[in-house]
Specification:
By secondary structure, the chain is an alpha/beta fold. It has twelve helices and eight strands. Bound molecules: 2-phosphoglycolic acid (PGA).
Length: about 250
């Protein structure tokens, strides 16, 4: 069964006390909301995971780390492993965000290792993909996105794919206020679902949750989420205010 999901990606924002307050606000709003048509997840900095886990009902609000290491343990100063993330009680990890790819040189090969470690440790993965403005304008974005997905995910079994959520985030739409049109997003989501179907068959493809991310806000979420292949959003800026985030959560 395909699930709708709205996931927040706080990025490098909020102190621990601020984050705890924001998480409480989101948790209370989700608990009070009637008949929500999506699952809700918040992605928070590593330092916040344990404290946030303590103030949310994980059955109502999922908890994601924003990254994990491609090693299990050892001499990797400053890194945080998938077992460490799982030990906080978090149940998701966001992997392959374009900011990680760009500023921290994450490659498809490295992300493949991270995906494996996340799944081995019981974490569901929100796997990000998406093209630059240059690729969009050159018109060859489809091949780029296909490579991101196939090179990091297509070694998985069909069963493992059930724990993967794909987030399509065109880089030119992230934090720019320039949202992809719902037709542009739908076109890529359809292409991604067809790619999954080609590799894993229709059932796995139909069940796959594919999120859109990039300047998604309460005003444009309803139109985006009305598209048949857009199953929710990965929300950056608008996830930092509970009211804005809830405006997106209730957009279905
Ligand atoms: P944005 O970020 O909503 O601020 O554009 C989305 C993301 O980077 O996940």
């Amino acid at each position: 069964m395909r699930k709708n999901i709205v996931a927040g990606n706080w990025k490098m924002n909020t102190t621990v006390p601020e984050g705890v307050n924001l998480a409480k606000e989101v948790n209370d709003a989700v608990a009070a909301a009637k008949g929500l048509k999506c699952d809700v997840v918040i992605g928070v900095p590593f330092t916040h995971l344990t404290a946030v886990k303590a103030v949310i009902d994980i059955n109502k609000v999922g908890l994601a780390a924003e990254n994990c290491a491609n090693h299990v343990k050892g001499a990797y100063t400053g890194e945080v492993s998938a077992p460490m993330v799982a030990s906080t009680g978090a149940n998701y990890v966001i992997l392959g965000h374009s900011e990680r790819r760009e500023y921290f040189n994450e490659t498809n090969e490295m992300l493949k290792e991270k995906v494996d470690l996340a799944l081995e440790n019981g974490l569901k993965v929100i796997f990000c993909c998406g093209e630059s403005l240059e690729l969009r304008e050159a018109g060859n974005y489809a091949d780029f996105i296909k490579a991101e997905i196939s090179e990091s995910l297509f070694h998985l079994t069909a069963e493992q794919m059930a724990d993967i959520v794909i987030a399509y985030e065109p880089i030119w739409a992230i934090g720019t206020g320039k949202t992809a049109t719902s037709d542009q997003a739908q076109e890529v989501h359809t292409m991604i679902r067809a790619l999954i179907a080609e590799k894993y068959g229709d059932k796995v493809a139909d069940d796959m949750t594919i999120l859109y991310g990039g300047s998604c806000k309460p005003s444009n979420a309803p139109e985006l989420f009305a598209k048949p292949d857009i199953d929710g959003g990965l929300i950056g800026g608008a996830s930092l205010k509970a009211a804005d985030f809830m405006g997106i959560v209730t957009a279905f």
